[in-house]
Specification:
It is built from 14 helices and 18 strands. The protein is an alpha/beta fold. The strands form four sheets. Strands 1, 2, 3, 4, 5, 16, 17 and 18 form an eight-stranded mixed sheet that branches. A five-stranded parallel sheet has the order 11-12-13-14-15. The structure holds zinc ion (2 copies). The site of one zinc ion has 4 residues, from strand 13.
Length: 411
Amino acid sequence: MALMLFKNFRLLDPERDDLLDGHELLVEGDVIREVSSSPITSADADVIDCGGKTLMPGLIDCHVHVVLSEVNIRNLENYPITLMTARAMRQMGAMLDRGFTTVRDTGGADWGLRSAVDEGYITGPRLFIAGRAIGPTGGHSDSRRRTDSATRCPCCDALSFSMCLADGVAEVRRAVREEMRQGCDQVKIMMSGGVASPYDPLDSLQFSMPEVNAAVAEATAFGRYVCAHAYSAEAITRAAHAGVRTIEHGNLIDEAAAKLMAEKDMFLVANLVAYYAMKERAAEYGMDGEMLEKNDLVIEGGLRSLEICKRAGVPVAYGSDLLGQLQVDQNREFAIRSQVLSPLEIVRSATSVAARLLRHEGKLGCVKEGAYADLLLVDGDPLANIDLLAGGGTHMAAIMKGGVFHKYALN
Ligand code: ZN
Ligand code: ZN
């Protein structure tokens, strides 16, 4: 198996507070074989002189939608899934260009896309999939026009492909089981109103407690977990009591809900950049006024939610949740969070915290023997200047996923 010996770098180990000098790292095949503070001897290895750059784990984004290629997601009902897939390929390649070697898709991506990446047909990050996002009739997963009465076939257009409606305990059970049969890594449910859906108020509570309990019971029985879309403290509290493991968004969280999340070992996946980007540019891509009004309701809670979770001890993972044309802003979340968090805290959110959330500690988000060789070489010290990660891949001289260089611009 191919061996590569990295020398002359500063090591950013997210578990340490500072960069480490004088280390060497050996990659064998797709994994890190050895990391050492003394020289590694390997006669057969190709030597990579890193020129003093910073070596760190590849980034992890815990909230993306690779198939939602339009800011006005309603446009997706005009596309067949072939075109959806072609666009997703482009979006996923761009995520890897930005240094994201793993992404967690929270609605849309299916096992076909995940396998296409693993089999090398699509150049993109490792995918953790939810399959279709499950919600009640009239909720955030229901993107039908008011004049639509029937539901559409999920195979026929890109919008129906990513959403699933279920009402009542029996239907929720069936929907959850179906997504697990389709190989989902996490089950996504909608528990409050959302921004990019037409008719549900943001503070609406979605799904009854018996429905959520059923989703959690089925997911747990299968060895999976439930992630819930939720904005308000009340929706978060309901999710916590039902045994949901991760809260997506959570902008309007309060101290009591955060305390409950900490007690129940839950994670928050924040994604502030989505609201800033929508406020600035979504109108030009056809997002309507009612959705933008809902966006205004949550945007100012974003930074406060990070501070509340920090005080309560709730781990917060990196998310972006950007739709379509706004996905170019994926790394901007680093800069936005730096208004209230330290660079190290933000780096951890996109590496070690994310790996824990994905239940892949020791394999992802770390630079350890036995972990996947998902590595970045950064021009400078991100712990001193987080903007080095905020500018897309511009400050990344090399990006490696699974022992293969996706980008190699060392001189
Ligand atoms: Zn959501
Ligand atoms: Zn989302």
